[in-house]
Every structure is written in C-alpha cells, then in structure tokens.
Design brief:
globular, ten-stranded mixed beta sheet, FAH, 19 strands, mainly beta, 278 residues, single chain, Fumarylacetoacetate hydrolase, domain 2, isomerase activity
C-alpha cells in the first residue's frame, strides 16, 4: 500500500493512494496511523499530484541518518573533506537532522547564499520504523520496518566542515529536505536491497546506483542503530547516498537558484523540487 498526506478542505489529511483515488483515514497524520494502527476510511477523493504533502512531519526525535553508506561515495570524497578524512569505518556512521528540514515532494528547496556557498544534493532511500525495538538482531530487523520512501539530504558542505567535524549544523537548515512522495509499506516493496536510486539536476543524471551497493545493508543499519538505543514507531532513518555528489566532482558543482532536483527510484516514485531563494 501507498500511504500519503494530502491537502484537503484546508488541512492536511492522511490517506491511502489507490490508483486515481485517495481514501482519507480517520487520523490526524501518518504518525498516528503508524503508532495506533490503520483507522477507518472516512471519505474518498480524486488523486492529483499537487495535493501531496510530506508524508511525515511529526517526529519523536530528530531525523536519523546514515553517512558514508556506499563505499564509492566514501572513496570519491577522499582528500576532499578539508582535513576531516578518516579511515573506512568498521560500523555504520550515524548522525541526525533537525525535523524542520522536511518539505513536501514538490516543494521548493529553501536556498540562501548567505547561509552557504556549497549546497549539495544527496538522493537517499529512507525507512520508517513500525515496531518498538532495542538491541534488534539482524535477522529480525526488517520486521521493524513499516515502510520506505525517498529523501534528498540536501547539505551545506561549508557548514558541515565548520563545526568541529560533526554534521548536525550542515544538515539541518530549515525547509531543505524533500520527503515522499508517499510511504510504500514494507510488504509491498519487498527486498530493500533491490532498489535503483537516481538523482538528476536539470535533467542530468548525477547519481545512479542500486541499494545493493550499500556498505551496510538495511537490516544491519537497524540492528546497529538499535544497539542500546530504543527505536520507536514513526522514527525516520535515511540510509545513505551513493557516489556523484557535487562536492566530489572535478570541478565541484553545487546547487544554484532555479535548479530542478529530481530524486527517483523504481519502487518508490519521484521527488521533484526547485531550488528557490528563501
């Protein structure tokens, strides 16, 4: 199933997308659906792309993220981290983003050259936790996933380098992370290691990879993240970006006002966002 948030009658409502129809649910948002179970259908409306909103807005904690989870991406940036190079990590690298980064699947990315001169794109597959767990075994990890969706972890590379080598500030600028366009339930998606992920800027393919290229697969990420740390329904985890980022290119290329960024995957749909001065 595909779960969505839509604009309807002046408010955002959760629903299920079925062909050209959205079945509206008797709930406040998809966080409530994930935590409390799927409620009754209260109405059906025609589906139009322009009514889609970010599937998740309300979080229990910051957005959870994975860095360096494609080795080709890790290697392409070697020597380009401005003195912050490290050896290949033996375990997944995790960080967080503030929740106010989230925008909808077709909203503008809030670009501001006064904040950063190095705006970069990072197409990612994200997942939503559906069941509470701590110290989750690898073999049980995928049972804790409610669904999958797309994100673009738009980053400000100069801010990322400027704050002691940690990434929170350079990843948490308001209204910069497209999310959606819907959440595909885990049972419908199937194997999360069989997704083709792409990022295009102004029609040019910049990133093109399979999730099979991940350094640490989805089950390992969940298991490692939950070690000593409780994951709860509604938690959002980004699983890393592949090679092709602007900061690693020769010459470097960063997002500019007016650019159109498309994030797409064969099983998850498409985000389409214009870079616009805030």
């Amino acid at each position: 199933m595909k779960y969505v948030m839509v604009e309807y009658a002046g408010s955002e409502r959760p629903g299920v997308l079925e062909g050209d129809t959205v079945s509206l649910l008797d709930a406040t948002d998809l966080t409530e659906v994930i935590t409390a179970g799927v409620p009754a259908v209260v109405d059906k409306i025609p589906y139009r792309e322009e009514i889609l909103r970010a599937p998740l807005r309300r979080f229990r904690r910051d957005i959870l993220c994975t860095g360096w989870n494609y080795w080709d991406h890790f290697e392409e940036s070697r020597g380009k981290r401005e003195g912050q190079d490290v050896d290949r990590p033996e375990h997944p690298t995790f960080f967080t983003k503030g929740p106010d980064v989230v925008i909808g699947p077709y909203d503008d990315i809030a670009w501001d050259p006064a904040i950063s001169a190095k705006w970069d794109y990072e197409a990612e597959v994200a997942l939503v936790i559906g069941k509470t767990g701590k110290n989750i075994a690898v073999e049980d990890a995928l049972d804790h996933v409610w669904g999958y969706l797309l994100a673009n972890d738009v980053s400000q590379r100069d801010l990322q380098r400027a704050h002691g080598g940690q990434w929170l500030k350079g990843k948490s600028i308001d209204a910069t992370m497209p999310l959606g366009p819907w959440i595909v339930t885990a049972d419908e998606l199937g194997d999360p290691q069989d997704i083709r992920l792409q990022c295009l800027v102004n029609g040019e393919v910049r990133q093109d990879a399979s999730t099979r290229q991940m350094a640490f697969d989805v089950a390992t990420l969940i298991s490692e993240l939950s070690f000593g740390m409780t994951l709860r329904p509604g938690d959002l985890l980004l699983t890393g970006t592949p090679a092709g980022i602007g900061n690693a290119r020769e010459p470097q290329v960063f997002l500019q006002e007016g650019d159109v960024v498309v994030t797409r995957a064969d099983k998850l749909g498409e985000l389409r966002n214009r870079v616009a001065r805030r």
